[in-house]
């Protein structure tokens, strides 16, 4: 069957197909069904995607790593031209290159061409900007056609997760689906159950959809700004009274999609000019070294790994001995919760909006289905649970539920 479900995520991507009436995610990198949404461009042409892309960067190979590609959708960055290897490409072309490579891998895995797709999308690509939202979806639609898909249908990611969860229940209920991913947090309230699953049109079962552009990369960014960037001079004083070191360098360094901006020679000259007028130039030396050695993505990766690690251990340490002997930053779950409490609260606040949109109160929700990597953060789960104290919490496949649900939807829409 030529149909598939594609979950192009900020952090990871999955693609599922239908074979002999059954839906399944395809292995896209070795035996792994998830592939990091990353691409590495080699200086003399050619590219690598996924873990191979990140591995090339970590190994110190010459080239350019790009991650969190989905974050530029709906922003002015989408058509911005950037240097990758010998070419100058727009971010839109970079996204097309990545998704196109994923499609080819999927076709090799299933043994036939894929021409029909149910493509996942967040409830809002851009908060409070309907025009930007439409532009983001249209860009993804155009890219999908360019790489060979003939029929393209979009489905909200939390609705897709609901379709996956529905296969697990043998009764009817109202569920709130919380999909907290790398770039967005999306919620849907939907009636589920065996009787509903047989319906061709599920529109009447969907009671509410809402979301906010906050996800795992925002938590990474906040941790980096609070814990790491002060070690590189953020917030330190200039020699001139009442002035601090400009913060823009640090905000770019803490944001996956803007790290490469710092590698422009003109930016490095600006940082060195700041160093000359800094009251603590030894801290700015660390920033200079990070940029000169192009360690930005490695630093962001270390922050992300530390955040993930705190799901299993109470304390963690990020070594910075490549900057300075014995330099390290230690923090724990309590610090993480404190640094990112505002983000968790803003995510949970969307549940109230979703309930109001559905016209029901919290007691009417039977279950909360949690999916997306950021639902592993303890304080995020607690914030969601506090909004729906009577609902049963169900944990789905953190990285696979949306892709599986999109594939279920593809079977329903394109199936024979």
Description:
- With about 425 residues, the chain is of the alpha+beta class.
- The chain has three domains: about 170 residues, ATPase, nucleotide binding domain (Nucleotidyltransferase, domain 5, 2-Layer Sandwich), CATH 3.30.420.40; about 100 residues, ATPase, nucleotide binding domain (Nucleotidyltransferase, domain 5, 2-Layer Sandwich), CATH 3.30.420.40; about 120 residues, no CATH class.
- The protein contains 14 helices and 18 strands.
- Strands 1, 2, 3, 4, 10 and 11 form a six-stranded mixed β-sheet that branches. A five-stranded mixed β-sheet has the order 14-13-12-17-18, sandwiched between helices.
- It comes from Flaviflagellibacter deserti.
- InterPro entries: ATPase_NBD (IPR043129), Hsp_70_fam (IPR013126), YegD-like (IPR042054).
- This is Hsp70 family protein.
- Keywords: ATP-binding, Nucleotide-binding.
Q: Mean pLDDT score, rounded?
A: 93
CATH level 1 class label of the largest domain: Alpha Beta
Sheet bearing the most strands, described? 6 strands, mixed
Distance between the termini: 9 Å
CATH fold name of the largest domain? Nucleotidyltransferase, domain 5
- Describe the global form: globular
| Parts with pLDDT < 50 across at least 5 consecutive residues | none
Structural class: alpha+beta
Approximate helicity band? 25-40%
Please state the CA-atom Rg, rounded to the nearest Å.
22 Å
Q: What is the count of structural domains?
A: 3
Strand content: 15-25%
CATH architecture of the largest domain: 2-Layer Sandwich
CATH superfamily of the largest domain: ATPase, nucleotide binding domain
List how many beta strands DSSP finds: 18
Helix count, DSSP H or I runs of 4 or more residues: 14
Pfam family, one: HSP70
Keywords: ATP-binding, Nucleotide-binding
InterPro entries: ATPase_NBD, Hsp_70_fam, YegD-like
Protein name: Hsp70 family protein
């Amino acid at each position: 069957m030529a149909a598939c479900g594609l979950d192009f995520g900020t952090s990871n991507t999955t693609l599922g197909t239908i074979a002999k009436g059954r839906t399944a995610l395809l292995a896209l990198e070795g035996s792994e069904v998830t592939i990091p949404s990353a691409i590495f461009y080699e200086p003399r042409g050619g590219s690598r995607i996924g873990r191979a892309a990140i591995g090339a960067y970590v190994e110190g190979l010459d080239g350019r790593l790009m991650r969190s590609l989905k974050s530029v959708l709906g922003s002015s960055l989408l058509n911005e031209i950037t240097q990758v290897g010998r070419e100058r490409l727009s971010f839109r072309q970079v996204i097309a290159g990545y998704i196109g490579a994923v499609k080819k891998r999927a076709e090799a895995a299933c043994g036939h061409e894929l021409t029909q797709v149910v493509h996942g999308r967040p409830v809002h690509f851009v908060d409070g900007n309907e025009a930007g939202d439409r532009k983001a979806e249209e860009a993804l639609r155009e890219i999908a056609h360019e790489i060979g898909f003939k029929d393209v249908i979009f489905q909200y990611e939390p609705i897709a997760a609901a379709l996956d969860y529905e296969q697990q229940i043998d009764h009817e209920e109202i569920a709130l689906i919380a999909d907290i991913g790398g770039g967005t947090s999306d919620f849907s309230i939907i009636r589920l159950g065996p009787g509903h699953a047989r319906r061709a049109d599920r529109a009447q079962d969907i009671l509410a959809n809402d979301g906010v552009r906050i996800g795992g990369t925002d938590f990474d960014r906040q941790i980096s700004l609070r814990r790491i960037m002060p070690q590189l001079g953020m917030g330190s004083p200039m020699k001139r009274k009442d002035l601090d070191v400009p913060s823009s360098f640090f905000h770019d360094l803490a944001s996956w999609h803007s790290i490469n901006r710092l590698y422009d020679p003109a930016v490095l000259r600006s940082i060195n000019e700041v160093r000359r007028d800094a009251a603590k130039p030894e801290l700015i030396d660390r920033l200079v070294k990070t940029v000169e050695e192009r360690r930005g993505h490695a630093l962001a990766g270390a922050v992300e790994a530390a955040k993930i690690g705190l799901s299993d251990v109470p304390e963690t340490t990020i070594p910075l001995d490549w900057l300075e002997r014995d330099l390290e930053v230690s923090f724990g779950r309590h610090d993480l919760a404190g640094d990112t409490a505002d983000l968790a609260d803003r995510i949970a606040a969307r549940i109230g909006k979703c309930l109001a949109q559905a016209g029901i109160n919290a007691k009417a929700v039977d279950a909360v289905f949690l999916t997306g990597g950021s639902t592993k953060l303890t304080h995020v789960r607690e914030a969601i649970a506090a909004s729906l104290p009577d609902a049963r919490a169900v944990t789905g496949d953190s990285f696979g539920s949306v892709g599986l649900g999109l594939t279920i939807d593809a079977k329903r829409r394109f199936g024979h």
